[in-house]
Structure prediction request, 86 residues.
Amino acid sequence: MRWAPMARYFLNINNGGGYSEDPEGQELENLDAARAAAIEGVRSLLSEEARQGQLDLSGKIEIADADGNILLVVPFSEAVELRQPG
Prediction:
């Protein structure tokens, strides 16, 4: 049985700190898996910001293929749910 090769996805970060290209990418099963990896990455970034007492949800992660084509954009705001007291 032959397995289909996994695609390489690049998770480029665009936020208040600037633009950071993912130089290596990740081999993932499909675009849904890439989106899940992007959300996990956003949550990690935001956890560092939260430790500093601030959250900037204006950023996004651009998921690109090996040719540099943007396949999906994941806004930071999709990675968290903010609840207000009351």
In short: Residues 18 and 64 are 17 Å apart (CA to CA). Strands lie at 7-15, 18-20, 26-28, 60-64, 70-75. The radius of gyration is 15 Å.
